[in-house]
Amino acid sequence: MNGNVTALSGYLDLFWQFSWPQWIAFSLISNVFLYLFSIGLYLFIDKTCRKSPLQEKDHPVSATDLSLSLFTVVCNSLVMLIGAFLWKSGWIELGNTRSAVRISLEIAALLILMDLFMYFFHYAAHLPFVYKLIHRKHHEHVSTNYLSLFVLHPFETIGFGLMMLTLLLCYDFSAISISIYLFINLVWGTIGHLNREFFPASFDRFLVGTTRFHNQHHLDETKNFGFYTSIWDRLFGTYK
């Protein structure tokens, strides 16, 4: 355990010593890697999953979508840089827990709270005047493709990031919890935009935000605003 603590502290010390040019390079490289990982995961599941497509065919990939998805990578990098600035300025502090139970609870808290925040943020994005300005482009993907997760207005991308940073300002989550949560977030977003149901049908009963759950939102924009779970949609009457 002490060895793990020392190793983690060493990594954090390394990041602490980064110059801002190094932070910029690191944020861009890491977010490009995650972008490519998401695309690869989507294509792998799409090729290996034997379930029938949820919709007849995937949304065609366009040059505009590619450009917008790459700009989303830049926006995600900007959010990371803001987080690094807040950390180095002392506004964000990282907890040092190594307890598996504590880490699990922190991850669960991040998932539930971010799901709640994203529900309201997503609902607000569907208000008519907001929708026309920032969210309509994403919903051109009535069916989805491997870029759909990243076809977002910059305000949406930065808004999601600022919600996350707000939670980090309010509580000292551990670096491990944050890292695991962010990985889950990427995988969940990728799975949520598949054109095949990834989860067993029974998962709907367990309040999981399945692929079908989010696909229904793309078909009916008045329903299913949650991301990880269907809890808030069921609670607020927007579940389908």
From TrEMBL:
Q: Where in the cell is it found?
A: Membrane
Q: Which UniProt keywords apply?
A: Membrane, Transmembrane, Transmembrane helix
The protein's name is Fatty acid hydroxylase family protein
In terms of Pfam families, this protein maps to: FA_hydroxylase (PF04116)
One Gene Ontology cellular component term attached to this UniProt record is: membrane
What stretches pass through the bilayer?
20-45, 66-87, 107-125, 146-169, 175-195
Q: Which one GO biological process term can you cite for this protein?
A: lipid biosynthetic process
Indicate the segments forming the Fatty acid hydroxylase domain, all copies: 108-238
Family matches, as PANTHER family: STEROL DESATURASE (PTHR11863)
Taxonomically, the superkingdom here is: Bacteria
Q: Which organism is it from?
A: Chryseobacterium bernardetii
List the molecular function annotations (GO) for this entry. Answer: iron ion binding; oxidoreductase activity
